[in-house]
């Protein structure tokens, strides 16, 4: 197996163009598992860890541009205040070792429906910046996933960064697993309130072929008493039901489809209440 | 011979540092998978993808043609007996004409690189005629389709005590189910076989029972036992999963065939297919009691799914059945236990060995009985608690302490855990942020269990110890040598402690366990400190007697390297008595004999010793999401005498955690004979955030018939923690919950 080690972004793009079947490796927490289990034997690995720009993040107007190689640990430590939803999700990823190495870019690259970074990125309307020797394009996270472990990435493309607005209101993330740490989501839900624009953003994880938005639930934003009033139980309940209904789950070893719908309804209601409480007290 | 010297200055009752402890924590311990030899080849196994199929043809061409491959072997190449098994030789070394479970070895390959070996194995083309698998153990009992020629019933154990027609005013019934649990030990199966000049083989292996392997390996290789030499390699853990042979015969066959050392290492996924698991159980119970809650009768039917091969199923079902009513006085008992062949993965030994499954059922029943009578669940148990002198359903009288009521009282009296705080980590779901308190209800539950220690039913259960006392560098020093497997339980340390206590010497070396000394029996059944500890003690006594003979005294003990009278007078230095003539004694030691069960009534003194533990579990349940957090465990156990108190607590904490795993998460999911979650991604075991703080109350009541009064420690904690946790979840939710592990959807009804 060839091991390609570009040291700049341009070199990386050139290498990917030249070796479209090379598998990029960032933290390696997905790639190495596949190699160790002999599920994958790519002809080449493209090591991205020496490309310094991938590990940078910066504010770009009211948006943040975060390099694909920024780890969960750094999201929690450096961006917890500006991206509370993503940071909450990052905290639930694996163990300290995995959070030290694993990256959001890798999570997107794997495009697993269970990737924990995806729901908060969906809820906040994030975009993925994709590069190749052909140029740069930007794709909404909602359009990035095409199916289980499939994304819009072309063979010569790499993920450069993701672009996400700094939080303009309360955000929440909640993940159901059958143990209290180190667990793949049975289902997860992210929510972002934007009190200025009076919108709710949503993201559902692990309950469909791709991460999903609950668009009908989002539409309830129009009915919320934004002027700092108490949230009626009926709305909370309705919101939860719509979140559950938006899921397209299956039965598998981790849980039943019916359970996932039910749990998402519960999480939908709870996270809306928590976010609303924060909004009212803000 | 490599040896281990254990921390100085500590006899029994103290907790010297274990020699493997620091190495394991720092990642430097050499596991069997780290073995290496010059010119070594790697073995790989081709396994059946089907739970039941006829083998129509095997085409080895692709494998043989692979560069780097040195051997490709099938059943035809097995030099000796083609079948092996711990109790009943029914398992083919390599499949012969048919496969009976998914994962059954069909062919083996040796190559110069592990990946080459794997690829070559994958290049073997096996043509199968796939048959519908037999997967329902209850239906299998008298089904016409059979897994083997002999019918599907492996063993039926009936127990009849008292009247068969007893009736009672209060009756509770229940049907219970236990899922298939995995041992999930560290360090998947691995070992290194080195061909020897005499035509024999040296096998370095992670196992629980060197001589158990030896007999089977020699038989299958067609070699006299003297030409097969086994040495224990670094074992990660076992919990029963290494009692059966896995890659032992395969590695030796490949080594003998190629004339080169061959190493085999299973991956975790292969390991899930490569060892036996805990028997899934279906159990039907009926308890009859008087209006005070005193048991009048228990009727039960227990069906254990043995899977495709016998392994230890016959003994497991005897345990489940003979211990099937729990540590209670029951005048009338009708219990029938069945072990059944199916095309599911083979099941055999796992910590608790049949007692776990039954305990979940009988303890659930005791809670039901308490509810039916409006009594406190602990009161009902105490009212029926077994006491010394009582008889078990087998008619066996319980001798020595049996502190059933005391253990229950202790866990009930333990201070309750604090109310939960606001930190997410104290809530069900933890940092996954699923609740801030919504839907969370607390529940408390109790469980008590009983386990037999040692091998039962007339098995000649012994251990051999060789102890040598000599002068090394001007100091008296002892070497102790047994074939007992250190599997992480701390046996190496215990052996040295015993020698220090008995012979009064500081320097004690524990030789690597191997088959150049007689059998120690298995490191299972909570027996090794009892039986090998007993053998080491007896060997020390023989050495001491020889010292005294040589010194011409019979009124002294050995202390601090000296011969000392009772009054404390030093009469000689051990160094002077020994001079340059070492004293060595080898002793075979047996516990008191056991007896078979009557095949019609199940009566008989089948067990050596009984051990008891009680648990109180406190849980917080998010009843809307079905997520559980075990908040605290209080447990009490009589260990007779704690030879190494820290290890005792380690066993109790670890066993309790394994029972927690069975209660709320650990299950090999088998559908149509196929394991759906053969990895640690989806076979979940508790993490440190799932295991709660434990209050551990260790009693040392002393069993007069055991060495130092000790009582086996390893299994009891696993047995009663499961029902205690489930009882606590029931208390929090009001649900019936008749199956473990309890999954979130059982709690939410979705
Ligand atoms: C023990 C363990 C626990 C885990 N727990 C969780 C969990 O709780 N939640 C969760 O979501 N995940 C979990 N994971 C999975 C994994 O850690 C995450 O998916 C992580 O985000 C992957 O990041 P990485 O940098 O390690 O990616 P890598 O393994 O390096 O790469 C992952 C994929 O992305 C591709 N890739 C990487 N970078 C780029 C790029 N810049 N452009 C294009 N493609 C790229 C790779 O080719 C590969 O296909 C766990 C993994 C392990 C081993």
TrEMBL record, chain A:
Keywords: FAD, Flavoprotein, Oxidoreductase. InterPro entries: CO_DH_flav_C, CO_DH_flav_C_dom_sf, Diverse_Substr_Oxidored, FAD-bd_PCMH, FAD-bd_PCMH-like_sf, FAD-bd_PCMH_sub1, FAD-bd_PCMH_sub2, Mopterin_DH_FAD-bd. One of its GO terms (molecular function) is oxidoreductase activity. It holds the Pfam family CO_deh_flav_C. Residues 1-169 form the FAD-binding PCMH-type domain. This is Carbon-monoxide dehydrogenase medium subunit.
From TrEMBL, chain B:
SMART domains: Ald_Xan_dh_C. It holds the Pfam family MoCoBD_1. InterPro entries: Ald_Oxase/Xan_DH_a/b, Ald_Oxase/Xan_DH_a/b_sf, Ald_Oxase/xanthine_DH-like, AldOxase/xan_DH_MoCoBD1, AldOxase/xan_DH_MoCoBD2, AldOxase/xan_DH_Mopterin-bd_sf, Xanthine_dehydrogenase_dsu. Gene3D superfamilies: Aldehyde oxidase/xanthine dehydrogenase, a/b hammerhead, Aldehyde oxidase/xanthine dehydrogenase, molybdopterin binding domain. Residues 417-438 are annotated as: Disordered. SUPFAM superfamilies: CO dehydrogenase molybdoprotein N-domain-like, Molybdenum cofactor-binding domain. GO terms for molecular function: iron ion binding; oxidoreductase activity. It comes from the Bacteria. Residues 26-132 form the Aldehyde oxidase/xanthine dehydrogenase a/b hammerhead domain. This is Carbon-monoxide dehydrogenase large subunit. It comes from Dactylosporangium siamense. The lineage of its organism: Bacteria, Bacillati, Actinomycetota, Actinomycetes, Micromonosporales.
């Amino acid at each position: 197996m060839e091991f390609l080690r570009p040291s700049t972004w341009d070199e990386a793009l050139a290498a990917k163009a030249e070796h479209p079947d090379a598998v990029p490796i960032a933290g390696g927490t997905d790639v190495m598992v596949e190699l160790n289990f002999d599920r994958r034997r790519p002809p080449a690995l493209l090591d991205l860890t020496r490309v310094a720009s991938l590990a940078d993040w910066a504010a770009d107007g009211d948006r943040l541009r975060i390099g694909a190689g920024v780890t969960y640990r750094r999201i929690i430590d450096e961006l917890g205040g500006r991206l509370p939803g993503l940071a909450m999700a990052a905290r639930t990823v694996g163990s300290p070792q995995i959070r030290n190495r694993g990256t959001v870019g890798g999570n997107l690259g794997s495009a697993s429906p269970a990737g924990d970074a995806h729901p908060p990125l969906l809820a906040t309307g994030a975009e993925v910046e994709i590069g190749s020797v052909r140029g740069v394009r930007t794709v909404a996270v909602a359009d990035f996933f095409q199916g289980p472990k499939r994304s819009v990435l072309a063979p010569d493309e790499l993920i450069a960064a993701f672009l996400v607005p700094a939080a303009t209101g309360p955000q929440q993330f909640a993940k159901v697993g059958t143990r209290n740490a180190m667990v793949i989501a049975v289902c997860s839900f992210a929510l972002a309130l934007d009190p200025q624009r009076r919108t709710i953003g949503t993201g559902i994880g692990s309950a469909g072929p791709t991460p999903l938005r609950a668009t009908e639930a989002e539409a309830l934003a129009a009915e919320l008493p934004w002027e700092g009033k108490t949230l009626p139980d009926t709305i909370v309940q309705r919101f939860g039901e719509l979140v559950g209904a938006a899921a397209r789950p299956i039965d598998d070893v981790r849980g039943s489809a019916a359970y996932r719908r039910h749990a998402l309804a519960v999480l939908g209601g709870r996270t809306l209440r928590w976010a609303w409480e924060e909004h009212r007290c803000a | 011979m490599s040896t281990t010297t254990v921390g100085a200055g500590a006899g029994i009752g103290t907790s010297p540092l274990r020699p493997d402890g620091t190495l394991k924590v720092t990642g430097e311990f050499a596991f069997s998978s780290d073995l290496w030899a010059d010119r070594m080849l790697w073995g790989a196994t081709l396994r059946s993808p089907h739970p039941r199929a006829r083998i129509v043809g095997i085409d080895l061409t692709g494998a043989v043609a692979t560069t780097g491959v040195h051997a490709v072997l099938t059943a035809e190449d097995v030099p000796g007996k083609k079948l092996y098994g711990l109790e009943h030789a029914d398992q083919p070394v390599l499949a012969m004409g048919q496969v009976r479970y998914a994962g059954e070895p069909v062919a083996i390959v040796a190559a110069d690189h592990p990946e080459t070996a794997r690829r070559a194995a994958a290049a073997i083309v096996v043509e199968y005629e796939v048959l519908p698998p037999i997967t329902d153990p209850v239906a299998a009992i008298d089904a016409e389709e059979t897994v083997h020629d002999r019918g599907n019933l492996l063993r039926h154990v009936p127990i009849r005590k008292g009247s068969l027609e007893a009736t009672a005013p209060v009756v509770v019934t229940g049907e219970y189910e236990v899922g298939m649990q995995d041992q999930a030990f560290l360090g998947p199966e691995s070992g290194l076989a080195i061909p020897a000049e005499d035509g024999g083989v040296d096998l370095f292996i992670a196992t629980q029972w060197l001589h158990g392997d030896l007999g089977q390996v020699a038989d299958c290789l067609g070699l006299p036992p003297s030409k097969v030499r086994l040495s224990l390699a670094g074992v990660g853990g076992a919990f029963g999963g290494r009692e059966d042979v896995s890659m032992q015969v395969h590695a030796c066959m490949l080594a003998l065939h190629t004339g080169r050392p061959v190493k085999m290492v299973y991956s975790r996924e292969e390991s899930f297919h490569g060892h036996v698991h805990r028997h899934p159980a279906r159990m039907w119970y009926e308890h009859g009691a008087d209006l005070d809650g005193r048991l009048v009768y228990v009727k039960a039917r227990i069906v254990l799914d043995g899977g495709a091969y016998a392994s230890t199923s016959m003994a497991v079902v005897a345990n489940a059945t003979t211990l099937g009513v729990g540590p209670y006085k029951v005048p009338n008992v009708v219990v029938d236990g069945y072990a059944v062949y199916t095309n599911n993965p083979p099941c055999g030994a796992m910590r608790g060995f049949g007692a776990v499954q039954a305990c979940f059922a009988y303890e659930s029943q005791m809670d039901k009985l308490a509810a039916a009578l409006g009594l406190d669940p602990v009161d009902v148990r105490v009212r029926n608690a077994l006491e010394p002198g009582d008889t078990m359903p087998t008619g066996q009288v319980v001798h020595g302490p049996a502190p059933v009521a005391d253990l229950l009282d202790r866990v009930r009296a333990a201070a309750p855990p604090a109310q939960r705080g606001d930190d997410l980590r104290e809530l069900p779901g933890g940092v996954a942020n699923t609740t801030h308190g919504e839907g969370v209800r607390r529940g408390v539950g109790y469980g008590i269990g009983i386990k037999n220690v040692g091998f039962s039913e007339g098995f000649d259960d012994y251990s051999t110890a060789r102890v040598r006392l000599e002068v090394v560098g001007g100091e008296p020093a002892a070497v102790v040598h047994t074939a007992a497997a250190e599997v992480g339980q701390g046996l190496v340390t215990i052996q040295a402690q015993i020698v220090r206590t008995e012979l009064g010497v500081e320097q004690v070396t524990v030789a690597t366990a191997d088959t150049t000394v007689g059998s120690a029996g298995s490191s299972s059944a909570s027996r090794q400190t009892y039986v090998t500890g007993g053998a080491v003690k007896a060997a020390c006594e023989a050495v001491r007697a020889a010292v005294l003979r040589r010194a011409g005294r019979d009124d002294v003990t050995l202390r601090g390297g000296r011969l000392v009278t009772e009054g404390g007078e030093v009469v000689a230095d051990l160094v002077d008595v020994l001079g340059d003539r070492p004293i060595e004694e080898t002793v075979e030691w047996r516990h008191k004999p056991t007896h078979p069960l009557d095949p019609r009534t199940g009566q008989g003194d089948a067990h050596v010793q009984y051990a008891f533990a009680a648990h109180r579990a406190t849980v917080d349940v998010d009843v809307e999401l079905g997520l559980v957090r075990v908040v605290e465990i209080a447990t009490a156990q009589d260990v007779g005498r704690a030879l190494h108190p820290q290890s005792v607590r380690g066993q109790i904490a670890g066993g309790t955690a394994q029972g927690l795993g069975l209660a709320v998460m650990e299950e090999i999911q088998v559908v149509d004979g196929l394991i759906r979650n053969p990895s640690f991604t989806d076979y979940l075991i508790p993490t440190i955030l799932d295991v709660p703080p434990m209050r551990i109350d260790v009693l040392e009541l002393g069993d007069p018939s055991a060495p130092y009064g000790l009582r086996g420690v390893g299994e009891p904690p696993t047995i009663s923690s499961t029902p205690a946790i489930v009882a606590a979840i029931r208390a929090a939710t009001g649900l019936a919950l008749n199956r473990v592990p309890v999954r979130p959807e059982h709690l939410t009804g979705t």
